[in-house]
Amino acid sequence: MIRRWLVAPLVAAVLPSPSLAAQRQDSLPLKTTRSVDFTTSEGTWISLDVSPDGRTIVFELLGDLYTIPVTGGEAKRITAGPAFDSQPRYSPDGKTIVFLSDRSGSENVWLCDADGSNPRALTKGDKNLYASPEWTPDGQYVVASKTSMPIGSVYEIWLYHKDGGSGVSLTKDDKGPAPGPPGRGTQNNALGAAFGPDARYLWYARHRGGFGYNLDLPEWELAIYDRQTGKVFNQTDLYGSAMRPVLSPDGKWLVYATRYDAETGLRLRNLSSGDERWLVYPGQRDDQESRFTRDLMPGSSFTPDSKALVVSYGGKIWRVEVPSGQATPIPFTAKVHQDLGPLVRFETRVDTGAVLVKQIRDASPSPDGRRLAFSALDKLYVMDLPGGTPRRLTSDSVHEQVPAWSPDGQWIAYVTWTDQGGYVEKIRADGRAKAQRLTPEPAFYDHPGWSPDGQRIVAIKGPRGPRVAEHFGPGYELDWLPAAGGAPTRITPISGGGRPHFSRDPNRIYVYEANEGLVSMRYDGTDRRVHIKVTGFTPNFAPNPEPLPADEVLIAPDSGRVLATSSNYVYLVTLPLVGATPPAINVADTAAASFPVHRLTRVGGDFIGWTPDGKTVYWSVGRSFFRYNPALGDSLAKAKARADSIRADSLKQATKEKPDSVGRARVDSLAKLPAYEGERVDVTIRVPRDVPRGSVVLRGARIVSMKGDELIEKGDLVVTDNRIGCVAATCAAPAGARVIDVAGKTIIPGLIDIHAHPWPTWGIHETEVWKYLANLAWGVTTTRDPQTSTTDVLTYADQVETGDLLGPRIYHTGPGVFGAYLEENWTSLDDVRNTLKRYSEFYHTHTIKQYMAGNRKQRQWVIMAAKELGLMPTIEGGLDFKMNQTVQLDGYPGSEHAFPIMPLYHDAVQLAAQSGITYTPTLLVSYGGPFSENYFYEHYDIHDNQKIRRFIPHEEIDQRAERRPWFRENQYVFPRIAASAAAVLRAGGNVGMGCHGQLDGMGCHWELWAMAGGGMTPREALRVGTMDGAYGIGMDKDLGSLEPGKLADLIVLDANPLDDIHNTEKIRYVMKNGRLYEGETLNEVWPRTKPLPQMWWWDTEPKSVK
Predict the structure, then answer these.
(1) pLDDT tens digits, residue range 155-191?
(2) Spatial separation of the C-alpha atoms in residues 966 and 92, rounded to whole Å
(3) Among residues of the chain, what percentage have pLDDT more than 70?
(4) Which entry of 860, 868, 1036, 1049 is 20 to 30 Å from 1085 by CA?
């Protein structure tokens, strides 16, 4: 039985002291409703400091600050509340502590008195991250490393006066030689500022650029910064890096961390002689292969007499004598009490009945505005506006996409696609005649568009072969062809996939090329002009940050404006004539744009367009179509602004006359104009769901049901239609049932990959998705993709449900909720609600991915809005252990990727277990060290595996198997991460399996084996891959175990995985939703006898030529 922690309600919590209660008054908006309480004598990543009088240690634990006597004892909590406080350091006089806190809503540097009282902010801002504050020896200044959110490119060391001011960067101009691979930019990262007795010289660790994966060492070296000259001098040159310097008060000793083989230790340097020796080995593993948001090592401190170092490792606090290295534990006991937000987890049942189509694609209204053409399930539809019934225009089995109306509204051009290629076709808009093929030869076509005179069609054309293989690369061109049909004529090669279109000039074709901007040309490709470059979000984590280009830009018929999309939002942008150099307009902050920019959508939009008269723009979201009149929207916005101004004046007057709630209520009752969002039309299409019929009995197998510890050594399993009817030692066969002898086999539930990325081709869709096939063939019967990048998955997932595509159940979050990571510019909870409505109301996802969406306050807004809208959020772990713990405190039900700090000790294990979060460590892309997928590629030959070659195209195999990086086995960290995950599991927590799309199908078995490599038992690993995954996505009522009434998703194995977890690969059959397939071939054996169709990659190997 899976254990779940019962978290105590707050009313049962022990009342805090008055000083601690006062600290709870901060600006974090989330109301806590639960608490966790436990006692611990160990901690994870304990940063500490020793008071100047040598009597007290201050340290951090789970976001609170504690003190103990320097000899140890019971810890006294001196800061409390939902804020995350960390990295404390005493002032030289011992009266003040500097620390980091997000109590203002975003992380800043704070000061408090030595007893934790009187907290006050030293820095202000809502878009920064800090690390390692430290005092100058005179106590007048504080230095701290600062970077920008959400990821940060590099940390700079800033100097602040203790009494205030904005501070100054000391290392902004540090671009000298530093470790780190090329391509990371020129700025050097600076962390771990430290002083000895001489305040002139600041020691720190530096490297070039930001973070990375699968790193080579060294990454960091020590340097000193001369505060008089501003010069920087390197101080180390070690393969294992040099990090987190600590200097003794007497100026004699330097301690720093470095990697030796696979472990991190502390080196002691005599600053007079330069001699060095090991002081501690092994110690706490460093964080240099992560994002080091809590510095590269926990903070430590010399005693005031310089005779010992007080440091944490192994979950304990130690006194280490200098120079002997003799270590004595400093015991502590901390009574942990943490207030938590409500766990935002919802139970979701698997849909039954007809499939309600979730997405219409490339919807466009007819020129007269009375009809709507679009594709749904990759078939061409037309409906009358506003409330007509959608109807297909053809009965063809090929994919039909991107419809375009002729100027007279009589015809619709569109493209078709199969693995054999596609064509440009047209059909009468009333559907009264068969479609006409316009292009004579198969190729890849996209985005057909009519010239204003209706005589020509322009389209993107590319080679069939690469597109079948999922590439949009070289070889694409812009073509035109006669509207009556004929051979295409090349206009120009292109590098992007923008939609060709026209203004009112019939002789110029416009197309958007992201790297260049909106360009136009004549039919012969001459007279090429660039009209505008629209950009959006600037990724501050890039080596040389530049604004990202917009996703699409379309010229208005009058050529005076453009319509653009960026980060899923729709913008109307003024297009000025400025001369030879085209204007560059950034839409990320519309108020700061160089020319008028209006964001038209609060929830977002896709598939944008102009009507021919230029008076209306349109877009789609999910299955909803929107038309928007910019002139009407502008006039209503101005009217609303006037009304709001009047209301503000009335509010001032009313509060003067009657400054109570009655007066405010009267003012609030003043009429407020609603925001104009255009006309919305919801398109309803229902299609039968694929459900098999009949009963089958799997007889005589060992059944590992994952219902608690249940194990049936020899039993039967009955499936009727798509649900399990009986699981027992003996089951009666229903009338007419087929009985399949599986004696000697083992049946387990189908695997559930809750961090999958089986991304199929975007835009023009595949007719078979090899990633889906590979997952199903290896027994992955359910996937949840936590960040799909595009909305194409809405259509693909529906096609799996209707049986048009073969694959696992495809669940997803849709594109990530990036917030400040992109250009949401959230300033209120209402802003976040609007963003999340895109998912609850239009995409109909029941989960979302909060992808490092801003500061603590903004992340709390996301969890609050998600709770209101019935959405289960999971988060991008982001190599940030500090953020990982704050989301546990805030009630997030899921966390993706490994916690980069290892190992986890009792405090972190208990918080993860008791918080209710599902921790999905995705070991194949391990954080904090080389990816474990490299380990498996080193140990398993996938290239000549015939099953892999059947389900994965050869080029994909070569990319993964032919030339790989190599790491010595002791460098891999996945056993350490898996051991911590096992500890969370055994403490009553929930751990999910996430394979990350590294090797679809087989990769999930590697993930399970990696879990077992960290000490999980085979049953525990199976639980992670089945029942815990189902619980993690809220679907454990239907999925995850073999029980009567649940959906029939299972694997029949030739060998027992409880004996050896590697036996999960030995698959005889896979059943998904009641259909039984051969594991080696995916030929269906029940209820139909149906071979898998021929796949395009089966016949791509070269033949010998004699």
Answers:
(1) 999 999 999 999 999 999 888 888 887 777 778 999 9
(2) 48
(3) 93
(4) 1036
Please give the C-alpha separations between residue 823 and each of 23, 754, 831, in angstroms, as whole numbers: 33, 27, 12
Omega before residue 331 within 30° of 0, cis:
no
Of residues 468, 480, 425, the one with CA closest to residue 444 = 468
Question: Quick one: pLDDT at residue 907?
Answer: 99
Give the pairing of strands 120-121 and 108-113: antiparallel
Give the Cα separation of 184 and 210 in Å (integer): 7
> Going by DSSP bridges, is the β-strand pair 253-260/243-247 parallel, antiparallel, or unpaired?
antiparallel
Q: For strand 617-621 and strand 85-90, is the pairing parallel, antiparallel, or unpaired?
A: unpaired
pLDDT digits (tens, 9 = 90+) for 450-462: 999 999 999 999 9
Residues 795, 359 contacting (CB under 8 angstroms): yes
CA nearest neighbour of 917 among 815, 865, 985, 832: 985
The separation between the first and the last C-alpha atoms of the chain, rounded to the nearest angstrom, is: 65
Least confident of 28-32, 368-372, 655-659: 655-659
- State residue 226's pLDDT score: 98
* Contact (CB, 8 A) for 891 and 344: yes
Please, what CATH class does the domain formed by 362-634 belong to?
A: mainly beta
Q: What is the pLDDT of residue 663?
A: 42
Q: Is the dihedral of CA 117, 120, 123, 125 positive or negative?
A: positive
Q: Is the pLDDT of residue 522 over 80?
A: yes
Query: Rounded to 5 degrees, what angle do the CA atoms 944, 947, 948 make?
Result: 65
Q: Distance of CA 182 to CAs 213, 215, 231, 967, Å? A: 14, 12, 23, 20
- C-alpha 920/C-alpha 740 separation (Å) is 36
pLDDT in tens, 1039-1056: 999 999 999 999 999 999
Here the tokens at position 411 are: 């015809």
> To which H or E segment does residue 830 belong?
helix 829-837
Spacing of C-alpha 193 from chain mean position: 32
Residues for the chain: how many in total?
Answer: 1106
pLDDT class of 475 with cuts at 50, 70, 90: confident
d(CA 510, CA 377): 29
CA pair distance 1, 468, nearest whole angstrom: 47
| Distance separating alpha carbons of residues 843 and 621, to the nearest angstrom | 7
pLDDT of residue 8: 40
Q: What is the rounded CA–CA span in Å between residue 147 and residue 129? A: 5
CA distance linking residue 1042 with residue 1019, whole number of Å: 14
Q: Each residue of 242-265: pLDDT tens digit?
A: 999 999 999 999 999 999 999 999
Contacts of 26 (CB under 8 A, 6+ apart): 81, 82, 83, 103, 104, 105
pLDDT of residue 638: 78
Considering the chain, tell me which residue range(s) the CATH 2.120.10.30 domain(s) occupy: 8-340, 362-634
pTM: 0.94
Place of tokens 């078709």: 416
Topology of the domain comprising 8-340:
Neuraminidase (2.120.10)
Encoded tokens for 597: 């920019």
Helix (H, G, I), strand (E, B) or coil at 68: strand
Token output for 812: 């997803």
Query: Residue 85's pLDDT is what?
Result: 99
The pLDDT score that the predictor gives to residue 11 is 35
Say if residues 571 and 590 touch (Cβ distance below 8 Å): yes
- Which secondary-structure segment (H or E) carries 11? none
SS (H, E, C) 549-600: ECCEEEECCCCCEEEEEECCEEEEEECCCCCCCCCEEECCCHHHCCCCEEEC
- The answer on pLDDT for 669 being more than 60 is no
Question: What contacts 750, CB < 8 A, 6 or more positions away?
Answer: 779, 780, 781, 782, 808, 1026, 1039, 1049, 1050, 1051, 1070, 1071, 1072
Six token digits for residue 394: 């053809």
For residue 3, count other CB atoms closer than 10 A to its CB. 12
Determine whether 614 is exposed, middle or buried from the number of CB atoms within 10 Å of its CB (0-12, 13-18, 19+).
middle
